[in-house]
Amino acid sequence: LAQPDLIDKLHFAVTIGEAVLIEDMGETTDPVIAPLVSMRYFKKGGIEHVQIGLKAVEVHKHFRLFLQTKLPNPRLAPELQACVTLLAFMITPASLEAQLLHILIAKDRPDLSAQHEKWMSTLSAHELQLKVKEDNILDSLATSEGGAILEDTAAVKSLTESKALWREIGNAKGAAHQAEAQIRQLRDAYRPAAAFARTLYFCVVELYQLDSMYAHSLAWFKEHFCGSIACTQEVHGTAVADMTSWNRALRMHLQLQVCQRVSRGISQTKGHRHVFALQLCHSVLSADGSLDPHEWRHFVTRGALAASPSSPVANPAPDWLSDRVWGNVVRLAQLPFAQACDFLSHFGANASAYRPFYEHMEPHTAFHLLPKPPAEWSPFRKLLLLHALRFDKCVPGVGVLIAQMPEFFGPSLLPLLEASDMGQTFQDAFDDSSASTPIVCILSPGSDPVDGILELAKAVSDEEPTSISLGQGQGAICLQLLAQVSVKGGWAIVMNCHLGESFMPQLEKFVSELKHRPRSTSANGGSVEDITRSGSGVTAALPLHPSFRLWMTSMPSPKFPISVLHVSTKFISEASGSTIQSSMASALTAVYSTPELSDPADVDMTAKPKMLRKQLFVLCFLHALLCVRRKFGALGYNMPYDFSVSDLQASALTLQDMHSSNELRMEGVTYMLAEVIYGGHVSDNKDRRFVLTEVNEVLAAREGVAFNVGGDKYMMPSDASGMLDSLEMTLKFVRENWPQEDDAAIFGLHAHADLVVQQRAATQLLEPFSSQLRRTSSIVQLQQQGASPAEASIADPLRDMVDEICGRLPAELDDCPPLHTTPMSNLLCQETRRFNKLLGTVRTSMEHLGLALQGFVVMSAELTEVSSALMSGRLPDVWTKCSYPSLKTPIAFIDDLLRRVDFFRGWIERGQPEAFWLPAFFFPVGLFAATIQAFVQRCGNVAIDDVVFVFHVLNERPPQPPQDGIIVYGMYLEGARIDGATGLLADPLPKQPLAPLPELWLEPITKGDKPSRASDYACPLYKTAHRRGVLSTTGHSTNFVYNLELPSDQPARYWIGRVLRRL
């Protein structure tokens, strides 16, 4: 498609009737070839024509069009699928294993392989000769007269030669069969290594589903497979002596080589390295027959398909075991292996024996504390128990699972899960590259790898790299620069490829030509005259200098050419520092190496004023604090923000400019940081409030005083220590005096924030596998693919779930009266309509899915999505489109829906309730608005805008409902609680991050009559724990409900960013 003469070639081929193959197609068709794909032909003079570009050409009847794509799983539009015939040339596991076995034998036993190929070639040649002889004989028989065949000397000669050839073929077949038997025996001996290599390859390919930048080719994998064979031969010789040891050595070496390079290019902060490790673990154990598919599905879906027990089982230890965890145990007990040992009864009778394991700080290392029978379970079944009791430890539990199976994975897989040394990563990527093998750096928010590339260039090359950043109008300049550098030698850095989507086809063509270009032998490369005039096509004939290296940086983008990714070595650049100490070190290095701030030769700051040095140190801490807080997800910020080194350097230069002008005013510095530099990224009001609070507090730090609320863990060095005089001294102070692991309090978060982060990491770990189930485990697919009985039996729990949901759905709510005279009755009518629509949608989808499972209706795409969602434990899209926000599994969602419907049914039948269950509402803000409207109607002379709420925490409900306002309940505090004795906000109790909020009386009152309570904290109320939503015109997230002013004896800054209220 990128060829400049594409239209001319199409005109020629369509006219004379030649076949055209267009390679590297995407998921959409180019407008130029769209008329050919959709066959939009028209007749002109009785002859079919087609419009290609600006010209209509005659269509020859023999013209054929073939489209090829390298995308592993293209999502083609239905209108495109209707126009073409789809052929999947994806390699199958069996054929890949056969190819790898052939490579193994050819590399390790070339004598037998050559002998086998020789005999096969000989047999083929003999068969061809025999066919010629047979044809000659038949011709002689056909032309002989009177049956005088024996008098025909030519025919007799052919018969004699055929007889001799037949004997020769017989002897050759015997030798070939003997060689074939040897090859077959070798194949069986090598099969374990080839089977593992096949499994490893498909695990690598599956990474593409996580991110389009994680694309790897089969040719790349075979290259490393051949390299591992060679290395194994060097160390262990051929496999003749000990096949088992040799196969294991090859397997371990291949795993190390491939996993090192794969993990270098996938994200650690997103948990993708653990996903890859778990995917490999699952595939290897499944291939070995050591993993039951039902147990794996239970692990991935968190027991969403587990059958409920015939009768409810009471929680045996409610004092320390929450009902949610007990529900996990009950679902685990429904698995066959748990039923075989009557695990549920055992747990109920011996619950106290499980408490030490449950309360252990690192339960994934304390399986020895478990009683029997779990103590004797397999490593994966122990992981299932950890999954049920301590879901937050699933991620480290995967590492323990791998460590407990050295016979499968060896010692090389675990280190790949740890953080990478970026300096070594740059070097490794360079070592794997060549003049024709580019290097792709995958960017992440807050990262900038260019400085690392430049440092590496200084170490290994005499020339400074040439760089260009893509953007509007930079394509032609970039192409000319690449042509020049590729001929003369040196490094070229093409930055921000995701910003030059229109240039990607030309870049793809340039990269594809690299391996075909002649190698330059002159020291200074060559000339690139007339490159600008000749265009991009000239590069194919230009000599390629051996020192040329092409570096490309790009954010993850589906538009990045997959063919470039296939031939490149890849690594990911992530913002360094998951802790304050490591992020502080990166921030200090960035500031001290900024040319405008320090001398890059000695990185010395002694010439700077002491006050400036202190404030730069404080600024680095602020930057580290804001960046590391992102790891807490929704607890950290309502929206994700890309704070980067550029923000830090801009802030440092602002400080220096104010010092230079002798007009240092902290108010101005605070405004620039909180509102412009860092605050410019922040779009959510609550996040902006937190950033402003942190900037004010951190910038007020003094020497010898700890930052924030971290006790004495994060001290600022004093002037006398001299620790701020140089980068080396400052880094030494941070390493020796600051902790390696951070307390959540330093971020202003509650003690359970780490627990929430760990649970989120575990959810992120399992989500890709849940998505995989949605793609591959629909009932129709299983039946079409001839699935095994164990896999096909998945239909049974799905059918049971559908029947359960259909049987439990209540009738729709009664319609409201035609006249609505009060704000509350209007609100009730609106909520009734919403719930009736949701009930109808759920009921219709379940009835249709039930019929489809029985074969009475076609399993449409919508029903396939519904079934896949139910099997993976998430809500179907057709439900969420008309539902309230929910993070629950389907069965838990139905339970919650029944409670909500019952609440409103009671309202309709018995009248307005004394207290309102706030989470029951689709639109909770509507309840607050209706309360204010009712108050205004009663008062008569009050404007709606003058009415506000006063929030009263109730220890017990009054005997009569209040005349003004409403009583609400059903809310929770995350990271805080209401102290029963004082009625004030307090820190949460141990292992209880969520605390129920007592009933609240929302008393409407005019602004002038509102009492002054300066110590109250305006606590944000959200619909779900995922505070992120779409920003409305008010500046609030659509997930945001209201600010509830709760009594507190702590200043507001203590709770800002710490408390999450949710329904």
From TrEMBL:
Residues covered by the Dynein heavy chain ATP-binding dynein motor region domain: 3-169
Record-annotated Dynein heavy chain region D6 P-loop domain positions: 435-571
A biological process term (GO) from this entry: microtubule-based movement
Domain of life: Eukaryota
UniProt-recorded Gene Ontology molecular function terms: dynein intermediate chain binding; dynein light intermediate chain binding; minus-end-directed microtubule motor activity
GO terms for cellular component: dynein complex
Domain Dynein heavy chain AAA lid residues, every copy: 613-753
Pfam families documented for this protein: AAA_9, AAA_lid_11, Dynein_C, Dynein_heavy
Segments forming domain Dynein heavy chain C-terminal: 777-1058
PANTHER family per UniProt: DYNEIN HEAVY CHAIN (PTHR45703), DYNEIN HEAVY CHAIN, CYTOPLASMIC (PTHR45703:SF36)
The name this protein goes by in its record: Uncharacterized protein
The species this protein was found in: Haptolina ericina
